[in-house]
Amino acid sequence: MSAVLVVRGAADASAIRRALPGVLVHELPDLKSPLPADATVLVLRSGVRPGERELDALPRLRHVVRTGSGIDHIDVSALRHRGITLHRNAEAGAGAVGEWVLAAALALARRIPLGQHALLLGRHEKQACMGASLSTLPAGIWGAGPVGLAADGALAPYVGRTAFAAWPSNPPGLRELSPRALMEQSQVHVIALPLRPTTEQLIGEGFLARVAPQRPLLICAGRLETLDVTACLRALADGRLSGLALDPVEREHLPLLTGSVAPLNLLASPHIGAQRSDVRGALDRWAIDLLMEITVDDKPLIEGGLR
């Protein structure tokens, strides 16, 4: 009999049990607990990193289901080596993340986080909250995957213009600028890059020095590790950035965001870009449909690769 291990928050385990009465469903808060050796399918969310210890503890594992987009926290090569198929849904939450990007851009342009932080510190900083009209600000988007494209769709009606950093893998038909031109011309930067060795801390001191004359707003909707967060906070404090918004904050990132005693135009959220009830419902339905296919006669849905 198939057994499914659901990491809490990745899918609705109760709905899976109702839909698949013949399947044993385990639910655990994380992968640190003792793992059920009978699990043939693992359903996980962002921030959960199955390593060699976890894979060794799941000898029957044949499928990993990622209810979302990013897979940089998953060792795809290790899965392939063990004959484990990886499935993901990269599209379902992109529109919601684009909506978060628009909300962040509006909040930063109007300096709402600065005013709130000042009030919480017992200070009334109305004059420091003089904002800008978002409609006057050109936006540059770094990354043309589902999230980058959704950010463009959300921002385009409300900003001066949008353009993508030119890259060979970008879809055809996008308005592109060279990375250098994008840094020199944009007053809003949206970082929607996947985390790879070439993108880790890409947004660091060199980038910040290049964009400093525009004092732009910087919005991270991809992976936090694509930023040198300490350098970005320093640039925000000394005025090289006018605002900073960080969504993909996991628990391990919390020490990076503590310690400031001055109000900052900083918006940080606990990776809620795709946390919308309709998105959650769509991902739950997708996961259930996929699990029904996977667990029929315990036959693999596909051999290798990504779904």
TrEMBL record:
Matches recorded under InterPro entries: D-isomer_2-hydroxyacid_DH, D-isomer_DH_NAD-bd, NAD(P)-bd_dom_sf
Pfam families linked to this entry: 2-Hacid_dh_C (PF02826)
GO cellular component: cytosol
Top-rank lineage group of the source organism: Bacteria
UniProt entry tagged with the keyword Oxidoreductase: yes
A GO molecular-function annotation: NAD binding
UniProt keyword NAD present: yes
Record key words, sorted: NAD, Oxidoreductase
Residues covered by the D-isomer specific 2-hydroxyacid dehydrogenase NAD-binding domain: 103-273
Protein name: D-isomer specific 2-hydroxyacid dehydrogenase NAD-binding domain-containing protein
Organism annotation: Streptomyces tagetis
